[in-house]
Design brief:
422 residues, alpha/beta, two-stranded parallel sheet, 13 helices, 18% strand
């Protein structure tokens, strides 16, 4: 375990001893949707690490569903094995035993009302107050089609409303909603974590769906008095604090960008044999702002910061979980192309009119989604509301600089950027 992780654990126990909701002699009850998501699993890992010696005082309730005939219980066990490098073998065995016998698994579908939850599971949720209810389940899809818009509405908006209706039937101390820093739409410059503007242009329906869901949470908190926290994350990348460094379970956003070029290369070379060692020249002008960058936050930092806000009983409501500095396009785009060993591309400030075949494929598949972000003026996400929490826990966000970005690339490379192939 890293030194920073140790200090975080020490601070958490200090915060608990000073009277936060998670420390009384009674059991701490935590419920969570989206536990198998990238952020969800890392938050779950953090909860286990912080409570490793007090699991008897932790009651964990995970709401989710089976996937491809694999029960939620089995999905959780499989992903918890990822902690093998974070904890000792004995601690991992202890956590796996806890998952098998102590965790309460509630079979539920986010897009369905809470009344679909079976009566036994509902009783388990209702039988005692829940200290923290984390809602992390959502769909991240940046395309703009009727089918995607409908899916985003049902999952992100109606799904959030369904969890809020469930909360009305429970006793919940804090409801923690995970949103997106990009609900600011096309707004640039200084952006505060409670900035709301439904009338602004948005890059895609995903941003709008997350803002509408967030507004539902804020209105619910005002109407019911339930304490609601809003955590807005920027682009989430792999771990840069906890081992294995670079660890990630979902290869979207910039990982998906690199995967596109890997697929194009495999198509040109006629297969995947020696895909990384064989260079390939692809003539393409890639549109991005040379002086710009994007904000990406390591998933383990985001999970730690979120949990620390709750443990420290911070009085705030709205938080940006972002990096202190942007990752320059002029660094990460060449780094990704170099990782997949693609040559021949060049940078341009506007999308070319006379597209060749490679460029036409790129702008049809990725350019429509990513170019607006890659050409945007800087977004300065304000982090003042979380600063004291980070200082108390001695937690700092690792910069996604050239060295750390290469760490992310090496892990992704080992897993072919999530691309399945024969």
């Amino acid at each position: 375990m890293s030194d920073s992780s140790t200090s975080i654990g020490q601070q958490s126990r200090t915060a608990l001893s000073q009277g936060s909701p998670a420390i009384s002699s009674k059991k701490t009850r935590i419920a969570m949707t989206g536990a198998t998501s990238l952020l969800g699993r890392n938050l779950l890992f953090e909860i286990f690490k912080e409570n490793i010696h007090d699991l008897d005082r932790l009651e964990l309730i995970l709401l989710g569903r089976a996937k491809e005939s694999q029960a939620l219980r089995d999905r959780v066990r499989e992903m918890v094995c990822e902690m093998s490098e974070m904890v000792s073998p004995d601690e991992l065995s202890h956590i796996l035993d806890y998952c098998a016998h102590r965790v309460i698994y509630v079979d539920s579908e986010l897009t369905e009302p809470y009344t679909k939850i079976d009566s036994h599971s509902l009783h388990q949720l209702q039988r005692a107050p829940i200290d923290f209810f984390f809602h992390l389940a959502a769909i991240s899809n940046f395309r703009d089609t009727p089918a995607v818009r409908e899916l985003l509405h049902r999952t992100n908006i109606e799904g959030t409303l369904n969890t809020l209706e469930l909360i009305r039937e429970l006793k919940v101390g804090e409801y923690c909603y995970t949103g997106s820093a990009y609900v600011c739409g096309t707004t640039t410059g200084k952006i505060y974590p409670d900035y709301i503007n439904l009338d602004q242009p948005f890059h895609n329906p995903y941003e709008l769906s997350k803002l509408k869901a967030e507004i539902l949470v804020r209105e619910f908190g005002t109407a019911t008095g339930v304490r609601c926290r809003i955590f807005r994350t920027s682009t989430i990348c792999g771990r840069l604090i906890e081992p294995p460094l670079g660890g990630v379970s979902k290869y979207d956003v910039f990982y998906g960008w690199a995967a596109f070029w890997l697929r194009m290369k495999a198509s040109v070379l006629g297969g995947w044999s020696d895909i990384y060692t064989r260079p390939c020249a692809l003539d393409a002008r890639i549109c991005y702002r040379a002086a710009g960058g994007f904000n990406t936050v390591p998933v383990d930092f985001a999970a730690k910061a979120m949990y620390q806000v709750c443990l420290q009983n911070d009085p705030g409501q709205s938080y940006h979980l972002v990096n202190d500095q942007e990752t320059p396009h002029a660094m990460h785009i060449p780094a990704m192309l170099n990782t997949v060993n693609v040559e021949g591309t060049s940078q341009c400030e506007t999308i070319p009119v006379d597209l060749n075949e490679t460029e036409a494929a790129y702008y049809r598949v990725l350019g429509k989604t990513f170019t607006p972000y890659m050409t945007s003026a800087p977004m300065d996400f304000d982090t003042d509301s979380i600063r004291s929490v980070l200082n108390k826990s001695r937690l700092r966000c690792p910069p996604v600089d050239a060295a750390n970005f290469q760490v992310l690339m090496e892990f992704a490379k080992q897993h072919d950027f999530g691309v399945e192939h024969n």
